[in-house]
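Working notes for the structural subgroup meeting. M.R. asked for a predicted model of this chain before we commit to crystallization trials. I am recording the input and output together here so anyone reviewing the notebook later can reproduce the run.

Input as submitted:
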Amino acid sequence: MKNTLTAILMACLSIFADASTAEEIPLTAEYWTLSEKGATFSEHMGRPAIAINGGAAVLKGTPFKNGIIEYDVSMKEVRGFGGVYFRENGQNAEYFYLRSHQSGNPDANQYVPKINGISAWQIYYGERYAVPTRYNYEGWIHVKLAIKDNKMDVYIDSNEPVLHVNNLEHAVVAGQIRLGGARQDFNYSNIRVTHTDDVTLVGTAPELKPLPEGIITSFDVGARVIKGADIEGKTVLDAAHTADQTWRKLNVGEKGIANLSKIGSRTREVNTLLVRITITADEARALPIKYGFSDRVTVFLNGHAIAHGDDSYVSRDYRFLGTVGLYDTVFPWLKEGENELIFAVTEGFGGWAMMAAVADTEGVSIR
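Returned structure, recorded in token form:
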């Protein structure tokens, strides 16, 4: 009996493990685990479907590493976000999704990594991560992701890739596949998964732009996450916040932005990391420093606050997305010798980030 059950199980899983097949995966509880809320097996436009709005559907069976994920999705022309997480392990995953309300716009869709539970769309924006695709709201939209190691071709109702991503963030480790959707009903059908290392990618990523002049390429980041309320609005940085920190070096990514979620996770209240640079000056002087962050920051020079900013999503107006760039400048007055500049960065939504640049480094050294 045990051998018979094992044989049946292996037969069920074979549609996922066999690289030569890409059969349609039945939309039943035998193959999918649905969240308690926001996901249901349904019928849509004459097909079996999974309807997701605020929930998720996890594919059972062999974890996915390399291969092809494809599906049809139906959505309305209203605000919404729906797509697929892959190589998901705990709080980390790769993610590609459609913005149903942005058809034809540069941010109609996006690749982002999820790191420690944070999807960093405010960091991974622009033409290397998204493409202005137009959507068919009257029928099914076919999406195909061809994935090989740290690269991915994206097809959206197309025979050629509309987007090529050449820098998938996470290590190449197998993980689960999860469908998601929010703000409206996303109906998924005709779902097929091929597991294989034999994937031919034909897309080309847009050219990588040079980093801004004087970009700081790494920061020291305190590993202990702090309550934002203990720092925001304070004029003096409590020495207790730095005394027991373990400082970790964090390099910036290809846009010159340090993704702080690599250091740790956050809760609604415990959501602030200290990001430090040390500046040694030959003499007392002011030093212009351009910087960008997500979502809020208080800047401390030698323990005293000199600036505060809020670049949260829609904090300025309904069109402001909170994406990260060198949009602010501070002019710290350095003393002769060593100075400690700390950015206390608080994350709320969309990516935990810090970047800075110093164009005039005459008479100073930065580490």
